[in-house]
Amino acid sequence: xxxxxxxxxxxxxxxxxxxxxxxxxxALGLDSRKxxxxxxxxxxxxxxxxxxxxxxxxxxxxxxxxxxVAKPDQEIRKYVxxxxxxxxxxxxxIASAAPSRALLIADLGLIPVGASGGNVWAIGEAKKxxxxxxxxNDDLQLRTLANMNQNTAVVQHxxxxxxxxxxxxxxxxxxxxRTAYKEAELLGKSVLQIKGAKEAHRxxxxxxxxxxxILEN
Length: 217
Description:
It is a single chain. It is built from 8 helices and 7 strands. It is of the alpha/beta class. The protein has one domain: 3-Layer(aba) Sandwich (Rossmann fold). This is Cobyrinic acid a,c-diamide synthase.
């Protein structure tokens, strides 16, 4: 069976795409689901995180950096028979055509939304990009994800607007702004491998469960 492909994208940087990509991939890998991360971002954050893993404790998902490939969608197709899940960490769409190409082959376009005012503009543009891709890819579903959640009035207002969006549904899961995610990145681990990070564990497990329900139903 061909891999399910998830494109993690947004119009701008700073929304936590790489954090979501690596931790979702790690959660799937730890669940014995063969998973690959495709890094399309020239900054290479996902590649660096996975590369930080010690040799005797490799990251629970594979990684390929295709940031310099002109037609990444064609290259990604080479992996679909070897994995159950492929997660594409996209660069900001404002600076690259790579997200558009990734969405052409994706089953799910996941839009992480950070908790800042600039994300209000970015989410609108990202939705338009995803909806244009749906005109060409009948299999593509779109979801938004509240990321870097904090209990402040401004953040809760932004995420409340997200939850009430009728065009692109928001996932029920919200990912908090937690040091455990940064610690995991530095150590080359999934946050699920960080001891004591109970809330982060709960969030990522809930994210994995919700994503699987979307893709497997």
